[in-house]
Write a structure and sequence with these properties.
CATH architecture of the largest domain: 3-Layer(aba) Sandwich
Number of helices: 10
CATH class of the largest domain: Alpha Beta
CATH topology of the largest domain: Rossmann fold
Strand order of the largest sheet: 2-1-3-4-6-10
CATH superfamily of the largest domain: NAD(P)-binding Rossmann-like Domain
Structural class: alpha/beta
Largest sheet: 6 strands, parallel
Shape: globular
Order of helices and strands: HEHEEHEEHEEHEEHEHEHHEH
Number of domains: 2
Radius of gyration: 24 Å
Helix content: 40-55%
Number of strands: 12
Strand content: 5-15%
Distance between the termini: 68 Å
């Protein structure tokens, strides 16, 4: 009996040694990765562009629709830093008061008014109609009014959501939009109708950005950021997601105006985002110890296949959804932030 107990103890020790060794290895890898992020955060500075050679010799007047919107206010703040090049006004789109605005004095209309961040699984038929009224009908009505008033360029904030029903998880230029729900379809309907309005005198820009994040943003990013500062462990996931920091978007919009562009564009950060790495970066900014644990992909795959809200949210967090990087290149650099610098800018307090 004693020999049997000794044998069991020896087996337990033998089994425990590899487990402890694996745990130590994971801990060391996490420590090394955290140290790398700390060094990058220490050395990384925003790549502020030198605008001394601002090419607009004639000041442009910009009208942003959707007063009080996160994106609209961000772009306005970005442009007013160059008072010699831009005059920026905003207009509230609730009700019909916007129709009293004289569009003829503006060179560009940047249309950001719309409904987003919907819980698409819990929406009435009346609410669905509202999405089409705002995201489709209003956008087209504003564009038609702008064209009639002599506005030269109309920039529309569409979304990557128009590809939400596609089987491909890496979107290419050949991928046809296929919205999964009414929200995506309302944007897609607007995209098509707006492009029919373009001509030599009326340029139409359609922007289809991925998830936009930054200080004060809404959506999945702030929820992940909260998680990153509260939990001690997170699963190691191999995924690729396109994201776009708000400052990178603002600079892209500025370039669309400067270069009087027309067409469909897909701005995104210079690098893909891996959810596990991003969570650890956020934790590092806050000096929060975060262990990234391998071997949990099976659990996340199960979560992604759960019907309803849990599955949809898990797919957004752990799944793949990205633009081919070549789709997002532009003749001028608009990425004023790298990924890690953008997280630092988003998370650090003033």
């Amino acid at each position: 009996m004693k020999n049997r107990k000794s044998t069991l103890k020896e087996k337990a020790v033998l089994l425990g040694v590899p487990a402890i060794g694996a745990a130590v290895a994971v801990y060391k890898k996490n420590q090394a990765r955290t140290q790398i992020y700390k060094e990058l955060l220490k050395n990384e500075e925003p790549k502020q562009k030198d605008n001394s050679d601002q090419k607009n010799s004639v000041k442009k007047r910009i009208l942003i629709t959707g007063q009080g919107s996160y994106i609209g206010e961000s772009v306005e703040k970005w442009l007013v830093r160059f008072p010699e090049s831009y005059d920026v006004d905003t207009v509230d789109m609730i009700g019909d008061a916007w129709k009293n605005t004289d569009f003829s004095v503006y060179d560009v209309v940047y249309h950001v008014a719309g409904i987003a961040h919907a819980d698409v699984g819990n929406v009435t038929e009346e609410q669905k109609k509202l999405y089409y009224q705002v995201n489709t009908d209003l956008a087209v009505e504003v564009a038609e009014y702008a064209k009639k008033s002599g506005v030269k360029q109309f920039i529309f904030m569409s979304s990557m959501i128009v590809y939400s029903g596609c089987k491909e998880k890496i979107i290419t230029e050949k991928t046809e939009p296929q919205p999964l729900n009414f929200y995506g379809d309302s944007k897609w309907q607007a995209d098509q109708k707006l492009q029919e309005l373009k001509d030599d005198k009326f340029k139409v820009v359609i922007l289809r950005p991925p998830m936009i994040y930054g200080k004060g943003s809404k959506g999945n990013y702030p929820e992940l950021a909260k998680l990153a500062t509260r939990i001690p462990v997170f699963p190691k996931i191999k995924n690729r997601r396109s994201m776009l920091h708000i400052d990178n978007l603002c600079e892209f919009v500025k370039l669309m105006i400067d270069n009087e562009e027309s067409g469909v564009f897909f701005p995104q950060n210079a690098e893909y985002t891996n959810t596990s790495e991003m969570v650890q970066m956020i934790a590092t900014v806050h000096d929060h110890m975060m262990l990234i644990i391998p071997g949990m992909s099976w659990a996340t795959k199960i979560m992604m296949h759960i019907p309803g809200k849990i599955g949809a949210l898990s797919e957004k967090v752990f799944g793949d959804l990205a633009y081919d990087l070549t789709m997002s290149t532009y003749k001028e650099n608009y990425r004023v932030h790298t990924l890690i610098d953008s997280i630092k800018a988003t998370e650090e307090t003033e």
